Structures are given as structure tokens and as C-alpha cells.
Amino acid sequence: MAPPSEDPAGRPGGGILAVTGVGRPRGDPGAVLSGLLAQPPAPGAGGVALWGSRACRGSSLGRLRAMWNNITVCSLWRPSPSFMSSRIQTLTRLFIRNYKDFCKDRQTIWTLQNSLCQVMKKTVPTLKCNMFPRCFVSNKARYGQYTKTFPVLDGSIPSVCEHVFEENLRNSEACIQRYSELLCKVSKGGGENAILRHTQRNKKLLVRERLRMLLDDETFLELSPFAGFDLPYGDVPAAGCLTGIGKICGIWCVFIANDATIKGGTIYPISVKKQLRAQQIAIQNRLLSVYLVDSGGAFLPLQAELFPDESHGGRIFYNEAIMSAMKIPQVAVVCGSCTAGGAYLPTMAEETVIIDKIGTMFLAGPPLVKAATGEDISSEDLGGARMHSKHLVGIVANNGELTHDASLKGSHFVQLCSQRCVPILFLQNTAPHAPEPTSLSQAEDHTNRLKAQASMMAAVACAGVPKITLVIGGCYGNESYAMCGRSFDPNFLFLWPNARVALVDSRHISTFPQARDDDCIGDDSELKHLKEKLDEESSAFHSSARLWDDGIILPQNSRKVIAQCLTIMKQQKYQIASLQRYPVIRL
Length: 587
Prior knowledge:
Layout: H1 29-38, H2 60-72, H3 81-98, H4 106-123, H5 139-147, H6 162-187, H7 192-201, H8 207-214, E1 221-223, E2 241-248, E3 251-258, H9 269-285, E4 288-293, H10 314-325, E5 330-334, E6 337-339, H11 341-347, E7 351-354, E8 360-362, H12 366-373, H13 379-383, H14 385-390, E9 394-397, H15 404-419, E10 424-428, H16 440-462, E11 467-471, E12 474-476, H17 479-482, E13 492-495, E14 500-502, H18 524-537, H19 540-545, H20 558-570
Parallel strand pairs: 3-4, 4-5, 5-7, 6-8, 9-10, 10-11, 11-13, 12-14
Antiparallel strand pairs: 1-2, 2-3
Helix pairs in contact: 1-4, 2-3, 3-4, 9-10, 15-16
């Protein structure tokens, strides 16, 4: 065996061991191969021979050993069974190609493969990374040697760090306990008494039960569950509402659900902020929104903190309109009472579902109606599910003079109701007298107002839907025609006891010019007599006595009477008959 060669830099060996030999090996091929491969490298060589080195050229024995080392240098790092099998086949083919004299039958080839297998089993486990030059070692193999130098963590805590670990453990347990306590408090809502009142007296589901029935059978992502604690105005568990993201029939949705056990679902400033954040998430991610509404409106003592500013309560309704314009679906489910501001949220949603006998929507509840009109009415009749879903009617109401813009607005609305087959209710209180024009500009305005009123008269006269007129105040002059007076053929016309029906108001009779003969001079007695006559003839009882109307009704009975009339008029839909050119003749 030759000594190690020197590289151009003068370093002994250069990381390469050169092996030389004379002639071709003879004898048993397995023994020859085993003997050749078993020779140890020269001391200080620092590597093995490579195929193609100068010292190996011209030597068959050197080529044989170099062939073995050239194949195994970059591939002996993962000696798996599949690896060894593939390398043995490769070495066998190369050996047969270069040493045809040794491989003349199958027995010799089998012996060669067996010897290669034995040699690899003995050689591969003893190889070390530092036996090979770095340029011939793969990155995985190079870095693999360093991973073995790091210690394996067994989970034990060094004695020096035990006190730190114990302190951190106590802090973690305290945080978890605090978290669990607050979460338990949130789940109880307004307390045991409020829950009993909500479930037993009001016969309603708790908000979490509603969500459990609505969402798919998987956990939902609840947002800001601890909002509303330790605020200046007290604790408001979960800010009085639950917000989060869950799946409904596999569709991700943002939900906002009022918790009526917390002061009847009253909206606090923190409630507004939480709902706005949920809407912002829905807008950013374009998620369908579902509102479970059961709210009594704003908390009035804190109205300055939730009403006037840009990011206060009105922003919720603004976001609803923006989301609708962005074609983000919004569905509202009225699960309880929705009063005042709480009623706008479901009315602005694209679709609204009201739970029968439980859900209600109105701006003012029965107590305020009683205080304002003296009428006793139930929540169901005032704004229940049946009322909102069955009593669909267009309402045209005026209080005073019919101006140019008001007349055009009224005519347009009447045309829409006629096109959509919606009955119309006229609440009439026309002005007693329009002031006479005193200038050219006022005369032009007067003319335009008359044209607009004429347009409204035409729209009312041609509307092919049922019409009901209720005179709640004055019924004076030509403006009463535009509001579907008796001459314009309403289906029903009723008066309140305080109604006045006349061409002019007796209180303004002195402002009208009087037509008289030149030789006749009027006096105050005639004017007084005229006023008394107008007062008597314009009363509601004078009108009803002459069948100028269909009766006088009390304000508190108006709703009932109008509902009956709408039901009566609805019956004509089921009595469609073809026109006959001759009457029925008795035989």
C-alpha cells in the first residue's frame, strides 16, 4: 500500500487514500473482494480512495477499491434494508462489467452478492462522518451529526428553577380560576330571578338555548364574552348581548343575540360597541348576519353616551344599510319585545321573522298608547306577529295644508299602492284656510300647489284598491278631495267626534270677501249669524245625521273598526265573477 499522496497545497494525503496494486485479482471472487475491502486505510490518510485519482490509474486493484468507495462515499448515511439492497445490485453490475473473468456463472455472482452483503454489514456501522471530505457529504448527513449532541428534555425541572416554576404554576392556576368564575357568571346572565321570570312568566327561551337550536351541532366562536364587567355604571354581563360566529346549515354566519335576562335586553353603551364590532367583522369577512332581537331599547340614563356621536347607536342602523348595499344577507328573528330603537334593527333587515304570541315590534308600548290616546290595547294587537304579517295597508296622513311637495309625494305613494294592490287608509286633517297670495311669487306658488293637488286627486280617483277615510280633524275645501273625501268614493268613511266638515272654517269667515248688492250694507249681525250656521253645519254629528259618512267612532276604537273594514274588503278577492250583460230573470 502506497503512502498518502499530497495535494497541491502540500498537505499530506489531501483527504484521499490512494491504493495501488499489480495485475488482476485471482482466486475466489468473494474472498478476493472481501480481502481487498478489508484493508484498512493508511494512518493519517483521513479518507478513502476515490475513483479517478491519479494514484489509482492503471491499477485494476486500485480501480476495484476506488469503485467501492466512490459509490459509498455519499450514500452510506442511512443504511436501511432498501438502501443496502440497491447498493449491492449496483456494485454487482459494476464488478461484472469490469471483471468478466471472475463472473462466468450464476454461482459466482451469488457468492459475490453474498460477500458484498457481509462486507457492508461490517463496514457501514463503523463509518464516521469525519472519514469523508465535507464536499462529498450531504447537508442532511452533515447536520445530522450535530442533532445528537443536544440533550433530550425529559420534563424534569432543575432544582435551581423549581421556585420559579412553582410561582408560575400558582399564577396560571389563579388566572384559570378567575377565567372560569367570570365565564360562569356570564352564562347566568341577569341572575336566577331574572332567568325564572324570563322562562316561566314570559315563556321564552334563554339566549344560549336559542343559539344551540339555531346553529349546527358544533362549537361556535363567541366574541368578547367578558365585555361589560367593572364599568363605571356597573356590571353588564356579556354587555347584554351575545356575539360570535357559527355555522347554520354549513354556512358561516355572524350572530348578534340580545339577552333579555339583563334588564330586559336594554342597550348600554358597551352593548352598542360590541354590536358594532360584530358588524365590522361581518363586513370585513362578508359574512351573513343573523340578529336575535329581544330588546327594550336604549338605557335612557346613559343616552348621552349611546345616542349622539358618530360611533353610537345610530351606527348600527347605518351599518345595516351599508351591508345591504354590499349584498350581505341579513336576517332578523324577533324573539321578544322590540321597543323604540330596538324596533329599527329588525325592520331594516332584509328578512324578518316574528315568533307568534311572543315577538312584538312597536315604537311605543301599550302604556304610552294609553297615556297618549286613552286606548287600552294589548302588545299582540299593537305590534304582534299577526298584525305585522297580515294587516298590510298603505297610510296617507296629513296634518294641515297640502303643500306642493306633499301633494306630489301623496300622489306617488297612492300610485305605488295601487300598482301593488295594497289598500289605502287616509287619515284626514286638512287646513281650514289657505292664505290668499299677496305677491307674484306667492301667486306662482299657489298655482303650482293647485296643480300638484289636482295630480293627487287624479291618483286617488283612479286608484283601483280599497280605500278607507278617517277624518280625525278638519275636512275643509278642495284639499279634502285629495284626501279621498266622500265625493271620491271611499269604501268606508268615518269621523271622530271632534271632526269638522265644511267648505270653510267659521273661525276664518271674516277673512273671505263677501259678495253683496251695491245698495245693501252688511253688518256684524249677519256675519255672526253666518258663523253660527257654519258651526252647526260643520259638526260631526250634523254630518253623520245626514249620512255624509258611515258613522262616528271613538279614537280608542279606531283600530278595531279599521281592522274589521280591512277584513271585510279582503273578502272580495274570493268573489271573482265574470261580467254578465243581462240580469238574473226569475222564471
